[in-house]
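Our platform keeps sequence and structure together, in a single record for each protein. Such a record has a labelled line for the sequence and another for the backbone structure tokens. The tokens are whole numbers drawn from a learned vocabulary of local backbone shapes. The remainder of this section carries one protein's record, kept here as part of the documentation:
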Amino acid sequence: MRREKMERWVNRFMNGRYGADQYGLFLSVGSVVLLCLSFFFGLLGGGKSRISSFFFYSALALLVWCSFRIFSRGTERRRRENRLFLEQYWRVQDWAKLQKTRFEQRRDYVFFRCPGCRHTMRVPRGKGKIRITCRRCGYTFERKT
């Protein structure tokens, strides 16, 4: 009975508030990482280190911002912040996947950028000096593979 009453109170309290999202999760994980760094540098510096204090107060700021976002009633602004965060997150994730793919293909292919439009192209490795034509802008250049 007491638990149900508490659950109802929390539900009423959170009604109309934004709650947790991916950006909030990122902030909370970031604050835990900063707290761990603060503890580590505190051990190294004998407890009173400027670096340790910097990491501690940065972690505290992230936790305050995360809490503010969770309890905020400005749901549209929080959604916008989360969308902007996800756009940046996906951009970084796509870049990391591209780098992984390039690394896996490094034995079979060489990657060049077109001098005309900066588009990246993949050509087979070990073909000697070849003429490469950019599919995007039509610029032709020679490179050794």
About this structure: Strands lie at 109-113, 120-124, 129-133, 140-144.
